[in-house]
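Question (not urgent): is this output format expected?
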Amino acid sequence: MEFPLFALIIAAIAGMAMALQGSFNAILGKIIGTLETTLVVHLIGIAVVIIALFLFKLGTGNLALIKNAPWYTFLGGVLGVLIIFGVAVSIPRTGVANATTAIITGQLLTALIIDQYGLFGLDKVPFTFWKGLGLACLAAGGYFMLCR
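Got this back:
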């Protein structure tokens, strides 16, 4: 497997976008409410995707194949609500850096478990000492981020 530099750059940009989105959601949540913010964010997201798919024809897949998807893949929508709500609640209370550190630590722990067992039909990627050490360092960094 060659080093996927382009994919990692895209992932880093997505991470940057998540920090910005979380900040915007936290501010909007203070103004209109957290659950209301979650609704607004999803409605705007739906509008953007509809425009991308149907106006600009940017989709590369086949929406008709949705019937072939396993039931649990639709939980992504539920998780999206949980993510936006959780971020909008946590950032005003902990700060963007602290909330993001906790999010990334939880995300990485879950990702390591999914990789190790090849959950949801994904390829197995074995857990290693170095990955465990990386997670421990990240968690320790998160702890230090919270120290005042």
